[in-house]
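Board notes (copied after class):
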Amino acid sequence: MGHRWILPLVSCLKAAALGFAFAALFTSPARPDGDFQAWLTALRAEATAQGISPQTLDQALSGVEPVARIIELDRRQPEFTQTFWRYLDQRISDQRIERGRAMLAEHQALFREVAERYGVQPRFLAAFWGLESNYGSYTGDYPVIDALVTLAYDRRRGDFFRTQLLDALKILDQGHIAQDRMMGSWAGAMGHVQFIPSTFRHYAVDQDGDGRRDIWESLPDALGSAANFLSQIGWDPNKSWGREVRLPAGFVWELAGLDQRKKLAEWQALGVRRIDGRDLPAVDLDASLVAPGGHKGPAFLVYQNFRVILNWNRSVTYAIAVGHLADRLSGAGPLETERPADERPLSRPEVEELQARLLAEGFDPGLPDGIVGGQTRAALRAYQRRAGLPPDGFPSFEVLQKLRTSEGG
């Protein structure tokens, strides 16, 4: 396969992908073929049918309009992918670690009470709290109802956010929070632990016993709610999240990924060791191996609690950040894997180019959209194997350069 038709195909696919991106970027929240007031009337009827009082609906929805800034934030796409190390640096600083330890000491009795009731270790609760709102210092400054009305009226994810809006109205109707205090992120995540309304309705608790579930200003309610959520979705109070490990030379990268589970004894037999070279713990425990920075980055064996964290946020790097921050809060040191000197993120257009070139080489990554998902990683692994590179499925600049000079199979 030569270059003569690869580059025209790349250009064509990139143009198509960029066309989709620009169409999404400039979609109006106001539905030019629709009527917002008619939509709002239908919403009120649905809310009334679900038992929400007219008084709550009058107060919450009077004068509400779609907010253009919310749509702008929803459509915004990062120009560059974020490297694992940069992600971690932005979320786990010395200041955040020190403050987290101070919060654990200051609220020791509360953390102990919540841990005893729900079975979630204090260091993990503090880690979620720290990552979600910097220990309550920033919980969002967007009126939640306005944000959710905007996103529910918009086409892109309207059904999901309509459900969230109805749940938010029920929270107001039940008196848990006043509307002027119901502030959150642009996407409607709320309070110390950034619950979306449906998570609040199913898992928030009245830990302080005042008759309301207030995750905005009641720290007992916020931490109790977070712990209840984790407990209900399978948290194991007797286990940790995972550990950084050292891989043997010639590691078989097909064994990496959350779809692969092995006993620690099996990983030991494959040559995986603790990061300091010692044997893995001799316990009967299932683990998967993840390497979010590719073969040049750190590797981790992760356990069931890691998968529970993924139910809070589907990002592997987020889950590692929670686990690592929890470790740092309890006195552990930083990660020991050496950072690569040539770490360089791919821009979104470069990811689109990588995807288009993979397709041109006969490996299907799906539509070149600049987003590295499972199909792109599978295609990338297949290409890496053919090209004699470690098949880690990681979209590095090195792989893109290799694709740029590839002559095909």
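Comment from the instructor: The first helix runs from residue 6 to 25. The first strand starts at residue 142 and ends at 143.
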